Amino acid sequence: MKYALPPLPYEYGALEPYIDAKTMEIHYTKHHQAYVDKLNAAVEKYPELQGRPVEELLADIANLKVDEIDRTAIRNHGGGHFNHSLFWKYLDPSNKKDELMVKEIISTFGSIEDFKKQFGDSAAKLFGSGWCWLVRNGQTSKLEIKNFPNQDAPIMTGLQPIFGLDVWEHAYYLKYQNRRPEYIENWWKALKLI
Fold first, then answer.
1. Range of the domain at 34
2. Does pTM top 0.90 for this prediction?
3. Both 24 and 74 in a single domain?
4. Residue 194's CB: how many other CB atoms inside 10 A?
5. Has residue 6 been placed in a domain?
6. At 25, which helix (H) or strand (E)?
7. What is the DSSP letter of 152?
8. What pLDDT score was predicted for residue 1?
């Protein structure tokens, strides 16, 4: 079974004016599709990996019996597929506020405003391309804000992703150009979970 682009549960323009339709279309149909295609190409010569959920591949990335060039491809493209698959779900405009998550965020970070400031500052300061995530630490069960470079995914380090912000330029450059902080600020308006 090959990996496939998951259906986008809303129209490209559903996140307007915060995330524009053209960016969504390119991000989903070009960037995410490329991660899926390249992940499929990387696992093609390893029958024992085919059909394994991408999260299993990523959680076990260091132990996969593959060539290093293929490990890197699985890490990069598998991570891109995994991260984006979650990203589309979190941004679904039909999502409702998660009151339990809100309470836990307030308990951990002091307030929603304090959390958004810490998260936004972390995302804005991430050098180059990558993701800023709200994660649950499996050791402590506490919520944490973590940055990951490139397409590295939280599950690669044993962290449970809650939601993440894509700060690769392809996620915002058509609308915001080099104004990453403005993109981050408006992204909160598209995220209905908190």
1. 20-90
2. yes
3. yes
4. 18
5. no
6. helix 21-26
7. -
8. 79
